[in-house]
Amino acid sequence: MKNTLLRSWTGPLTERLVRAPGEHGLGQVPAALKPDTVVPSVCGFCSTGCSLSVHLKDGEAVNLSANPGYPVNLGMACPKGWEALAPLAAPDRATTPLLRKDDSTLAPVDWDTAMRHFVDRFKTIQREHGPDALAWLGTGQIPTEELAFLGALAKFGMGIRHGDGNTRQCMATAVTAYKQSFGFDAPPYTYADFEESDVLVFVGSNLCIAHPILWQRVLRNKRSPEIVVIDPRTTETAMAATSHFAIRPKSDLSFFYALAHQILRDGSIDREFLARSTTGFDEFAAFLAPHTPARAAEASGIPEERIIELARLIGSGKRVSFWWTMGVNQSYEGTRVAQALINLALMTGNIGKPGTGANSITGQCNAMGSRLFSNTTGLLGGRDFTNPAHRAEVARILELPADTIPDENSLGYDQIIDGIEAGRIKGLWIVATNSAHSWIQQNRCNGLLDKLDCLVVQDMYASTETAQAADIVLPAAGWGEKDGTFINSERRIGRIRKVRRAPGQALADFHIFQLLARYWGCADRFARWESPEAVFHILRELSAGQPCDISGIEGYDHLDTAGGIQWPYANSKFRISNSESPPPPNSTTPQLPDSTTERRLFADGRFHHADGRARFLFDEPRPLPEAPCADFPFTLLTGRGTSAQWHTQTRTAKSDVLRKLYPQNIYVEINLTDAVALGIRANDPVTIRSRRGELTAAAHLCHTVQPGQIFIPMHYRETNRLTHSSFDPHSRQPNYKACAVQVLPAARYRTHSAG
Ligand code: SF4
Questions:
Q1: Residue at 559 is within a domain
Q2: Pocket, ligand 1, Cβ cutoff 6 A
Q3: Beta strands 492-496; 484-487: pairing state
Q4: Ligand 1, atom 6: nearest CA belongs to which residue?
Q5: What is the DSSP letter of 584?
Q6: CA 510 – ligand 1 centroid, Å
Q7: Among candidate residues 305, 331, 360, the one where a domain is terminated
């Protein structure tokens, strides 16, 4: 009886989503699109946010080109962008919901069956073990509207308090560093800063291959800039730089404090800016006293005179910009390292002006949307769950009872994993991420997924390592098969468009959330969440008055005509003070510069803390959590392999073209000196072993890594067998970059093991 009622109540929506042609569900591309036309859409891989023109023929997406009129990529695209349609046609797309049967196999079921099992099993766990027994893990790969819907549905509809994103793995450190230093998660730059800088300092960033279009922006710089790379590896970017500092792994904090020490000693600080716009500099200056270049030389392996030389370049009064990515973020003390760079920018006044800034380049296509609107560890719009005024404001805007908004922050990803291990979390819903491959210390994570009473995985592919462990698989549409918006690294909101039908019964994540709200019995709370664009307007309301204010964006058409719009873009009645253009008095019409104008934050020297000042934050450097030793004498470095690979390769491995651009099998970069000492020849199989697991990889003999260090790309499923579960205490971001390993020729290792 109960199921009959449920079915009759949910039936029409399921029918409409799954069966009816049209712009929802499985239908053709929206009728508004002409069958033979070109449709712009922001790329769904990295955070650069390139605009791609999708070419339709007879209503089908048949080709792509890079959009020359878009201010981000100016007609350029990297190999992943050119191949963006290929993963959609892969034969292993999830085309129907799957349910694990008693014989342990996954069997196709219809949406009604999948939804009923999902709801029954999650509600049973919730009833028997309480609200903390459920959690979800999201992503930075789906549109902002879907991220917001997921977070709101889970927390305000289903009563699941704990949810985090895979963004914890890539930019949680930058978020925390900005929040603590600036008072808000506010990357201050615009891409024009690559072209307007005199000195570009890249830290732990292999921009050439990780963000190749941004590297092209660097190459457009006509100021003959100094390009400084600080990275243990001689990366492609280091090879192209004017100077490279191959510091020892994780000696970065000592190195940056020594630069600050020398700049202070030389008197090359911006006293007027420090007095007007910052707090805590005197304490920082006192802290720096023992952090001399000589001390940093010992820690980093860089000669003292080179450190002094670099400090003088940074303090020379030229336009200096600092750029960092995962070499900083994925560290056990990443937040303080990021803040050491922020401190350098602040003390030299290199912020808020063209060609300057302390600039985190993020990873995923919509990591920035996740940062502001995923409702995971922060409340919608950059708010705080523990702040009663913030909760009341969100409840009012969403027309929800105030007590539906949790008054505590969610557990982080690592704490959710710990909760599963401790048996406290029994139901997990994973959306568009491949935790079983990507989470640190993989063997532990995989074992834990089996401990769950119910694992639901919602993804484009049923073939991922994580989906293979699921009890229920929900087939999702991918980029190009749905509508919404992404926010790129420079805070530019761009539109993605549905240009293709999702295969089989796969649905846009947005429609899966709508369906789930009905089956859970909370759809009335989301009556206004009718479509991605309706949610975009809700987000405009939620952002109003916040530093990320987008209330001045009129809708999707406005984004189209403007070529993307950077936040803040306030309706003037809510406008905040730190955009470059002051609001016109008594106007409600957005007056910010047009689409082609690039904007940076903090031009007026006002930050988001209550006193309007940025803060100097610092701590003593700490030793590596797992330093090399006699038994495990090598340091393992991990990172991106090539510009043709993306994360766990669930999509890039589907492209015949991309697969030709990188080694198919796992390889390890070993310094030639070490290889000779160990008797390893080129392409020999080599066993790499940590205290947690081992793998075999082909030896690539080179000088890109220093003696005593090896490098393995993160894209191969074996890599995270080795990594070590340690985390930054402020951001809870995993420390993927440096752990201790053994290196043994595979044949010798077999003999050794047998003996
Ligand atoms: S650089 Fe990033 S956004 Fe641009 S085409 Fe490549 S993957 Fe897409």
A1: no
A2: 43, 45-46, 48-50, 73, 77-78, 80-81, 212-213
A3: antiparallel
A4: 78
A5: P
A6: 24
A7: 360
Instruction: Tell me how far CA of residue 622 lies from CA of 260, 300, 304, 527, in angstroms.
Output: 18, 13, 21, 51
| Averaged confidence pLDDT in the chain | 91
How crowded is residue 8: how many other Cβ atoms within 10 Å of its Cβ? 9
Residue 202, phi then psi, degrees to nearest 5: -105, 125
| Mutation pick for ligand 1 pocket among 213, 366, 490 (CB with most ligand atoms within 8 Å) | 213
Q: What are the tens digits of pLDDT across the range 649-673?
A: 888 989 999 999 999 999 999 999 9
Q: Is the pLDDT of residue 26 over 90?
A: no
C-alpha 117/C-alpha 112 separation (Å) is 9
Type of residue found at 312: R
pLDDT confidence band for 14 (50 / 70 / 90): low
Q: How far is the CA of 37 from the centre of ligand 1 (A)?
A: 22
The total of structural domains in the chain comes to 2
227: domain CATH number is: 3.40.228.10
Output the six-digit token pair for 211: 């963000």
Q: Which residue, 329, 360, 391, sits at the end of a domain?
A: 360
| CA 529 to ligand 1 center in whole angstroms | 30
Are the beta carbons of 111 and 18 closer than 8 angstroms? yes
Compute, in angstroms, the gap from residue 50 CA to the centroid of ligand 1.
Answer: 6
What the block records as the tokens of 436 is 């079983």
Q: Let me know if residue 741 belongs to a domain.
A: yes
Query: How much is the pTM?
Result: 0.92
What would you measure as the largest C-alpha separation in the chain, in angstroms? 83
Q: Which of 176, 579, 158 minimizes the C-alpha distance to 378? A: 176
Nearest to 504 by CA among 470, 463, 457, 461: 461
Give residues with Cβ within 8 angstroms of 461, minimum separation 6: 90, 92, 93, 94, 467, 650
Q: What is the pLDDT of residue 583?
A: 36
Domain containing 726 equals 634-754
Domain CATH number, residue 642: 2.40.40.20
Residue 700 counted as domain residue: yes
